[in-house]
Amino acid sequence: MVSRGAKVLLIGLLGMFCQGTQLPPPKPNDSADGVHVSPKVRLRDGRYLAYREKGVPKDQAKHIIIIVHGFGSSKDMNFLAPQELIDELGIYILQYDRAGYGESDPNPKRSLKSEALDIEELADQLQIGSKFYVIGVSMGSYATWSCLNYIPNRLAGVAMIAPVINYQWPSFPESLIKKDYKRKLIKCAVLLAKYFPRLLLWWVTHKWLPSNSVIEKNPAFFNKRDIDILETIPGFPMLSKEKLREQVVFDTLRDDWLVAFGEWEFDPLKLSNPFPHNTSSAHIWQGYEDKVVPSQIQRFVTEKLPWIQYHEVPDGGHLIVHYSGVCEAILKALLLGEQNLLYRPRSGVSVS
């Protein structure tokens, strides 16, 4: 049996993959009961995806960006890009609720490929053009990897912010991941989700679900700068006991977890450069002190895929998307090719 401490860490780890995409407080134009009706598109299979548009009008935009939220989040996630930069560069931003999240319909056939095809069809329905940028945050990065594999011809460029790692990727050497305790915790969570969903539901809604404050102040997951950020942003609304007791919420989170950390149909570390003529670019942004995904693993990924540019926040944890100036640097690197020297990876660090 897993110890009580390991159980708390496991549930905490489940929560960590939604932390990078915290929901903002309700907007003033939300209704009194908290319900906010968003525009939707109807997909070929009959499902509806809800979306949200920001920035300049799409017919005036010079850059089209689709942002993919992570585990337990929604299209209302925060992306702290300065409005002045958005206006100056002519950026149109499209955020959407992934299948089963927020106001979008569930997809009982969710897969790696379906995540990419949802993005492609959403773009086509809204007529935003033949090419667009994709930014994936935390666990939303698995949809970004899927886009690189299944729809590379539609991509103007990609960025992944503190992307999660699937320890089952076959190209990972055992020496790199064998000492990472999170590998076993994630494997345990996958087994529970796949074979014992009722037990998992009971577990997370009863005795073993720690309070948000326990998760948020746990130094096992956050560095000091992360903990300071957590004082200023909301908690984990999708992981409350009340929400998890809703079958559609639990099923969505369970299916999303299984796709992200189950067996993939392709090995990301064997992907070819989709931008061989340097007309576009791919980026990974990582905190050096990230306690959810170790920076040495991200370094290994980008060493195997040298066409992905690696940026590292030196005192950053897993919440770098909330750090002042980071989103601005992400946009400038992705859209303009500018390299901010503050986020150059420190040299002399081994990945072995």
Write structural notes for this entry:
The chain is an alpha/beta fold and 352 residues long. The protein has a single domain (4-24, 48-343), classed as Alpha/Beta hydrolase fold, catalytic domain (Rossmann fold). Helix content is 36%, strand content 14%. The protein contains 13 helices and 8 strands. It has helices at 4-19, 83-89, 112-125, 141-150, 174-177, 181-195, 197-205, 212-216, 224-230, 241-244, 247-261, 295-304, 326-336, and strands at residues 40-42, 48-55, 63-68, 91-96, 132-137, 155-161, 282-287, 308-313. The protein has an 8-stranded mixed sheet with strand order 1-2-4-3-5-6-7-8, with helices on both faces. Strand 7, helix 12 and strand 8 form a beta-alpha-beta unit. Helix 1 (4-19) crosses helix 6. The longest helix is centred in the N-terminal third of the chain and has 16 residues, at 4-19. Mean pLDDT is 86; it is low at 208-214. This is AB hydrolase-1 domain-containing protein.
